[in-house]
């Protein structure tokens, strides 16, 4: 029993030991597991802390494929790799994870959640699940991945449409004005199936350019995502058919008030020109400057533009003012000039009638008509100045003298107090260095208010030809060393062509031979020494300037051979055979010591001839050629003065005239045109001032042939001009028929030619003088009798007035050659005037010959009321 008890005890001890050991072992194992779990839990917490530091995920810049996709297009995680995605941390210095941490991405498994919440194509973001793992420790979190393509950035302008309602009723520039609440700007998608929802965006509008003149605008629409202002895009639209800026002409007028009394139209013209002379002045400032003469009120927003101010129908008490109203700074921008706002729009030209001006024109016109000439004063410094070199400040009464013509006499023009004379050269073409003249504009003004002008020719200035001397010319004839001087001039055409081509001016700039006629004549030839002396007659094209020059050309081929002919033998004096024979036959009885000298002088008196001084001339005979009435034969021989060698008899032909009548007839047949000399007194006279048969001064008239060459009177002939029996006065063109008469040895012949260049009939050549008995009448009373303004037959008078010309001669010739009628009679009751046209109709002439002048009958009684008011008064 005891043994059994021992055994139990031993067994119990063993079991206890084993149990204790088991307990100890179990406790140790449990303790180790607890430690291990505690370590893993700490690592997960650290990973979770790492994820908390990540703000969002971003697609890397080099992940092109991923960036080109919408978030909604991501169906698997194949592109969601660390190579394509960056972690973006919040406020943390270390921007990367521990290299031991493995990163992977996956889509959120729930498809509905993925579609509903994860993908946002407006933002370009996708909610993805990121997994971090270290060994067996793993943690996950859903984080937004940014950087996908957005809807707004994928949209183009063509995908959208910008509507502007009521744009045809507003200007483009008014589109953004707050007051235009009725304008609705609406952006809409062209394709409604696009996923873009414009309600998710804030839309703002701005102008890129505005153009009110063309009704165009370029508008930019800025679209910004409401949830992320960094997601945005803009779209530019060019819109047409806005309302264009236009002017309502019917409502657009300015108001005018004359503020200065007793001013002339020209005074106001000058004031307007002065007020608007500075382009830098504002329009308002210019109008202010003008307000002392004329007050102008323009509609708000407009400027005034002056067009013209002219007398109405030659009545200097009434003026028509033409103007435009201008609006500036209009929007007129375009692509190239988007900020331009300098558009201008002008109204149509508008006119208004202004009255109550002072008229000095009649007085000025009468005074200006008295001015007939302008000449250089006795000590004028301009006498030594070319017209092209004259300056305006030298055109004054110290250098100039104004003349008035009374009959045939000229006298100084008397300038009255209050009047002023001004001189000007309008254009460079008026300066004529060839003739030494210029066209001078003379302006006569009264108190600086009103003026009249006329243009006269000022002659007597220095001309080009005055500066030339014999040594001014240079002639270089090619190959002259192989040409005899006598051979060169044996043919006049040849010498003209050769010398003209090779003649040069040595010391005068801008000289042009084209302005002159050149006539060459050989005056001396010397073949022994190879010399030729020429005389050149230089004549200006207008024939007012001429001068002779003599110059020698040396270097010709020399010859000792006796010449066998006279050179340039020409009958320029139109002599008959008998006249030539009588002169030459006297040479036979001359003494030997004077024969050569007298013979050569006689030849020169008869002919245009060149003689060589080395040879003695001996006359033999002169007679008419058989069977040729217009050719004479001169027989002579020559003798060399040094060698005494004598030539054989030489016979040379020369043109002659059968009779004096034939000579005169030949001369008259060359006349094509007769002109009054441009600076003569005839240019200031009417043709009707000369009566039939009256003789005209030769110096006042020039004749021309068909080539416009001046015809000079032939020596030995008498030339005269008289008014023809049928003068055919033409006052419109300033012409009259004259007889050109040639006379020699009691033989007279004549031809009738039209003489041009007289003064043309002008308004100032006659006056309208009211008859005394009508000066107490009102114009409206004269209107009752239509015959008051009809000319009485064969007179220059009506019942109401007389026409007064300078003298009875003019009046008689006017009546003999013209019919006078009155047209367009206008009765000006308030001003006490009658205005009308006087028409001069040439008898047996055409409508082209008519001359019409507007005249005013003044001095009548003025009415206080208009005719309409008088009629009302009479009825009342």
UniProtKB/TrEMBL annotation:
<feature type="domain" description="Lipoprotein-associated type-17">
    <location>
        <begin position="54"/>
        <end position="150"/>
    </location>
</feature>
<feature type="domain" description="Lipoprotein-associated type-17">
    <location>
        <begin position="468"/>
        <end position="558"/>
    </location>
</feature>
<feature type="domain" description="Lipoprotein-associated type-17">
    <location>
        <begin position="152"/>
        <end position="244"/>
    </location>
</feature>
<feature type="domain" description="Lipoprotein-associated type-17">
    <location>
        <begin position="368"/>
        <end position="462"/>
    </location>
</feature>
<dbReference type="InterPro" id="IPR007326">
    <property type="entry name" value="Lipoprotein-assoc_dom"/>
</dbReference>
<dbReference type="Pfam" id="PF04200">
    <property type="entry name" value="Lipoprotein_17"/>
</dbReference>
<protein>
    <recommendedName>
        <fullName>Lipoprotein-associated type-17 domain-containing protein</fullName>
    </recommendedName>
</protein>
<feature type="domain" description="Lipoprotein-associated type-17">
    <location>
        <begin position="668"/>
        <end position="760"/>
    </location>
</feature>
């Amino acid at each position: 029993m005891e043994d059994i008890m021992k055994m139990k005890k031993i067994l119990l001890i063993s079991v206890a030991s084993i149990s204790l050991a088991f307990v100890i072992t179990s406790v140790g194992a449990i303790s180790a597991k607890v430690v291990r779990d505690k370590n893993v839990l700490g690592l997960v917490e650290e990973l979770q802390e790492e994820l908390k530091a990540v703000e969002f995920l971003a697609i890397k810049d080099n992940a092109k494929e991923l960036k080109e996709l919408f978030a909604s297009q991501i169906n698997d995680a194949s592109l969601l790799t660390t190579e394509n995605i960056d972690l973006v941390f919040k406020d943390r210095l270390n921007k990367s994870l521990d290299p031991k941490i493995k990163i992977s991405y996956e889509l959120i498994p729930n498809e509905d959640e993925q579609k509903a919440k994860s993908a946002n194509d407006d933002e370009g973001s996708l909610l993805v699940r990121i997994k971090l793992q270290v060994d067996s420790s793993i943690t996950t979190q859903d984080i937004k991945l940014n950087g996908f393509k957005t809807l707004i950035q994928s949209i183009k302008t063509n995908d959208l449409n910008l509507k502007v309602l009521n744009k045809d009723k507003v200007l483009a520039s008014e589109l953004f004005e707050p007051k235009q609440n009725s304008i609705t700007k609406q952006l809409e998608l062209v394709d409604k199936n696009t996923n873009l929802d414009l309600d998710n965006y804030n839309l703002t509008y701005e102008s890129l350019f505005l153009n009110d003149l063309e009704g165009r605008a370029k508008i930019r629409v800025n679209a910004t995502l409401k949830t992320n202002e960094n997601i945005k895009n803009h779209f530019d639209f060019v819109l047409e058919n806005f309302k264009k800026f236009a002017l309502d002409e019917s409502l657009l007028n300015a108001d005018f008030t004359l503020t200065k009394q007793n001013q002339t139209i020209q005074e106001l013209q000058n004031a307007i020109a002065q007020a608007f002379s500075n382009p830098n002045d504002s329009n308002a400032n210019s109008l202010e400057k003008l307000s002392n003469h004329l007050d102008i009120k323009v509609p708000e927003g407009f400027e005034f533009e002056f067009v013209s101010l002219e007398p109405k129908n030659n009545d200097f008490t009434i003026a028509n003012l033409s103007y435009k109203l201008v609006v500036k700074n209009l929007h007129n921008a375009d692509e190239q000039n988007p900020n331009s706002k300098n558009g201008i729009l002008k109204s149509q030209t508008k006119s208004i009638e202004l009255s109550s001006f002072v008229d000095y024109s009649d007085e000025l016109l009468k005074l200006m008509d008295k001015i007939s000439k302008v000449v250089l004063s006795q000590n004028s410094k301009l006498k030594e100045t070319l017209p092209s070199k004259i300056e305006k400040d030298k055109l004054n009464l110290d250098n100039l003298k104004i003349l008035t013509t009374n009959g045939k006499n000229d006298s100084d023009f008397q300038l009255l107090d209050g009047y002023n004379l001004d001189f000007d050269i309008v254009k460079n073409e008026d300066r004529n260095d060839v003739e030494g003249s210029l066209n001078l504009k003379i302006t006569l003004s009264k108190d600086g208010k009103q003026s009249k002008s006329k243009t006269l020719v000022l002659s007597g200035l220095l001309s080009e030809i005055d500066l030339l001397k014999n040594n001014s010319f240079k002639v270089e004839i090619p190959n002259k060393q192989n040409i005899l001087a006598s051979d060169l001039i044996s043919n006049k055409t040849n010498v003209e062509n050769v010398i003209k081509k090779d003649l040069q001016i040595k010391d005068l700039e801008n000289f042009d031979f084209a302005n002159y006629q050149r006539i060459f004549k050989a005056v001396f030839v010397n073949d022994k020494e190879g010399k030729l002396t020429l005389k050149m007659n230089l004549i200006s094209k207008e024939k007012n300037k001429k001068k002779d020059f003599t110059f020698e050309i040396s270097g010709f081929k020399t010859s000792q051979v006796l010449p066998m002919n006279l050179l340039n033998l020409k009958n320029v004096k139109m002599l008959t055979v008998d006249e030539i024979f009588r002169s030459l036959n006297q040479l036979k009885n001359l003494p030997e010591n004077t024969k050569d000298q007298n013979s050569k002088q006689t030849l020169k008196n008869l002919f245009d001839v060149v003689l060589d001084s080395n040879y003695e001339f001996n006359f033999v005979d002169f007679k008419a050629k058989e069977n040729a009435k217009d050719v004479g034969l001169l027989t002579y021989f020559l003798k060399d003065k040094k060698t005494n060698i004598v030539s054989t008899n030489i016979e040379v032909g020369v043109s002659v005239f059968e009779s004096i009548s034939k000579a005169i007839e030949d001369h008259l047949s060359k006349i094509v045109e007769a002109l009054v000399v441009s600076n003569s007194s005839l240019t200031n006279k009417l043709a009707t001032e000369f009566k039939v048969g009256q003789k005209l001064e030769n110096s006042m008239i020039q004749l021309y042939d068909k080539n416009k060459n001046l015809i000079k009177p032939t020596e030995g002939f008498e030339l005269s001009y008289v008014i023809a029996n049928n003068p055919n006065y033409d006052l419109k063109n300033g012409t009259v028929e004259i007889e050109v008469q040639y006379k020699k040895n009691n033989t007279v012949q004549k031809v009738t030619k039209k003489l041009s260049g007289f003064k043309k009939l002008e308004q100032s050549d006659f006056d309208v003088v009211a008859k005394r008995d009508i000066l107490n009448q009102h114009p409206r009373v004269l209107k009752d009798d239509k015959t008051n303004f009809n000319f009485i037959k064969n007179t220059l008078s009506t019942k109401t007035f007389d026409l007064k010309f300078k003298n009875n001669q003019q009046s008689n010739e006017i009546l003999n050659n013209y019919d006078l009628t009155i047209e367009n009679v206008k009765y000006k009751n308030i001003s006490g005037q009658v205005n009308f046209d006087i028409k001069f109709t040439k008898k047996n002439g055409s409508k082209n010959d008519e001359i019409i002048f507007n005249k005013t009958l003044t001095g009548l009684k003025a009415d206080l009321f208009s005719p309409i008011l008088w009629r009302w008064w009479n009825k009342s």
